[in-house]
Automatic annotation (TrEMBL):
An example Gene Ontology CC term for this record: checkpoint clamp complex
Protein name: Cell cycle checkpoint protein RAD1
Subcellular location: Nucleus
TM regions (residue ranges): none
Family (UniProt): Belongs to the rad1 family.
Main localisation: nucleus
Organism name: Spongospora subterranea
Alphabetized InterPro entries for the sequence: Cell_cycle_checkpoint_Rad1, DNA_clamp_sf, Rad1_Rec1_Rad17
A GO BP entry: DNA damage checkpoint signaling
Lineage summary: Eukaryota, Sar, Rhizaria, Endomyxa, Phytomyxea
This protein's UniProt keywords: DNA damage, DNA repair, Nucleus
Length: 290
């Protein structure tokens, strides 16, 4: 439940408790835009939010087929204070986004406070002298599936300009298409995306061009299918990213790591990553029904 009130001055901490976690940001849009990229469901989404000495990690899951995580470095935050080595809370992420955008498209100064178990998280936003305080109750802990991408060896890796990957993915979205095949190879075509729907087929191939791939390190030719709706869920993050690190392991799991520049400091890069499971059995089942 969120509670909002507008004041001209910030209320003092009447109970005298020192916050377990606190930080400030000059621009609420830095945090709200990252959270927006994780909101790929129409319904409210629940997230685990972890705080440690490196910064903040926000984790969400979709149908146990995709996991998304955002990493916000502490250098992106001001006056970041953490009393314990590690704190994790479970929160309604959709509600958190609505609180951060209470002033609409305007970017407000934001302060975050959390005083520990039994207390809500508090956002204090200020825009041109108007202060709004939002409180959100934490939820019972939620266990997310462990995709454990690194349990299998990484066989193929590439770093690509995010704008080029976004353009290629848009070409895959043909009517009736359910899956996208991704091929990574040490020989031509080095990276190939393909999608089918009846008699229609869309295919994009990338050449080994240093301007396209700052890094291209493929050990073997491997091709796996993935659910196209999962890739649609990554588009928001692609729109914000400058580079994307693509990794494929021996089990066909795909890791997309998007590098996001901080609006407040272009030298600081935050990350949004998506881990996708291959849809081998799902597509085989569809093929058998045809």
């Amino acid at each position: 439940m969120a509670q909002e009130r507008a004041n001209n001055t910030q209320e003092p901490n009447v109970d005298g408790l020192v916050p377990e976690i606190s930080f400030k940001m000059d621009s609420s849009s830095v945090l709200s835009s990252i959270i927006s990229s994780l909101l790929f469901e129409k319904k409210d989404m629940i997230a685990n939010v972890s705080f440690n000495n490196a910064g903040i990690r926000i984790s969400v899951d979709k149908a146990r087929s995709m996991q998304a995580r955002a990493y916000i470095k502490k250098e992106s935050l001001q006056d970041y204070e953490l009393l314990a080595d590690h704190v994790q809370i479970t929160i309604n992420l959709s509600l958190m986004y609505r609180c951060l955008t209470v002033f609409g498209d305007k970017s407000a100064h934001v302060e975050f406070l959390y005083r520990g178990d039994g207390f809500p998280i508090t956002f204090i936003l200020e825009d041109q002298g108007v202060i709004t305080e939002c409180q959100i109750n934490t939820l019972e802990p939620v266990s997310l599936p462990d995709f454990n991408f690194r349990s299998s060896s990484v066989i193929n890796r590439a770093i690509i300009k995010s704008s080029l990957l976004k353009e290629a993915l848009s070409d895959m979205d043909i009517p009736g298409s359910q899956y996208i095949d991704i091929t990574m190879s040490p020989v031509h075509p080095f990276i190939k995306l393909a999608s089918n729907a009846g008699a229609m087929r869309s295919e994009v191939q990338f050449l080994n061009d240093p301007e396209v791939f700052p890094v291209l390190a493929c050990q073997t030719t491997a091709s796996f299918p993935y659910a196209l709706p999962l890739f649609r869920s990554t588009v928001k993050a692609l729109s914000m990213a400058t580079q994307t690190n693509i990794k494929m392991n021996t089990e066909g799991m795909l890791l997309l790591q998007h590098s996001i520049k901080s609006l407040e400091n272009t030298n600081i890069k935050n990350w949004i990553e998506f881990t996708l499971s291959p849809a081998i059995m799902e597509r085989d089942a569809v093929d058998l029904q045809r």
